[in-house]
Amino acid sequence: EAGEFSLINRIERIACGNHIKPASVTEGIGDDAAVIEKDSRTFFLITADALIENIHFRQDYISPYTLGRKALAVNISDIAAMAGNPRYYLVCLSVPATTPVNWVKDLYKGMNHIAKQYSLFLIGGDTVAAEKTIAVSVTVIGEAKKGSVIFRHGAQPGDLIFVTGLPGDSALGLEILEKGFSKSLKNSLIKKHLCPVPRIQAGQALARQNIASSMIDTSDGIIPDLIHILRQSRVGARIFLSNFTLSKAYRKTCGDNAEDGFFYHALYGGEDYELLFTTDRKKTAAIKALETELDIPITCIGEITDKKGNLDIINASGNSVSFEKKGFAHFK
Ligand code: ADP
Ligand code: MG
After folding, report:
1. CA-to-CA distance for 277 and 266, rounded, in angstroms?
2. Model pTM above 0.85
3. Strand 236-240 to 311-314 pairing
4. 29 lines ligand 1 (CB under 6 A)
């Protein structure tokens, strides 16, 4: 009824409004992860995200192993968005009593696959009975040196806006899965949806080289996620559609034409789990070098303006386009 953003605001007012915030809480609700003082040199980064059956996934297209991988990967992505290093995780598993033990074992084998790759250690959780559908709720705790955390606030007028990877593929993969056309991981769009790769290396490099002035991971879509940066940095932005780098599979699926609607999935498609960041123009050469070093596209898609609350999406002909349905062209 209220929308997620406004609901979280109300939650924050009730739960945090009349409490004294502990001095250790550098950032509470509002960024990709909470930032809590660990010691004089280090922060803990703490984030939680759940995957719910028939909302975020269907058992007919995702195996328990792949689900486990994804449940952990999407949380690690929030640590990447703060330029941190993931360390520990907890899992709250809610499953119907009829769930085979092997299903649960496979889920944890999948999580373990990602945990090994990113050096995370399982430290706890909870197991509860569900009536009908499965829910996997994960908490990840990471660390970062003080001074190297990148927040959603921090974007400055004149900064350029960059995104890693190839936007929109995950949303197209989900459409193929939902239509039942295929569930093969050999399809690159489906793979992007089911097996997201958290950009830990990129996040840390952007902090180490002092490149990013603000950052978020793209879980809701480039535009909705950019709006979080704009709101918290109190700035506006201009996005140039002709700058976008899109995958071959995207272009093939969406007809390879340059009409505005062609960009819809790239702008509003969720679950890419790429990094969206802003940077001083002087850092463009460093970003080029990073693109080569990490071997992933890092594309400039626009610029930050001082027009607070204003987001312009400009097409190849230089005209402003609005995707009315989502109503995000103006925001407060
Ligand atoms: P992300 O997409 O990066 O996971 P969200 O948009 O889900 O971020 O959440 C934004 C902020 O709101 C985060 O700081 C998150 O911890 C907080 N948050 C979300 N839901 C709740 C809730 N139900 N109670 C308290 N905080 C919440
Ligand atoms: Mg996030």
Report:
1. 16
2. yes
3. parallel
4. yes
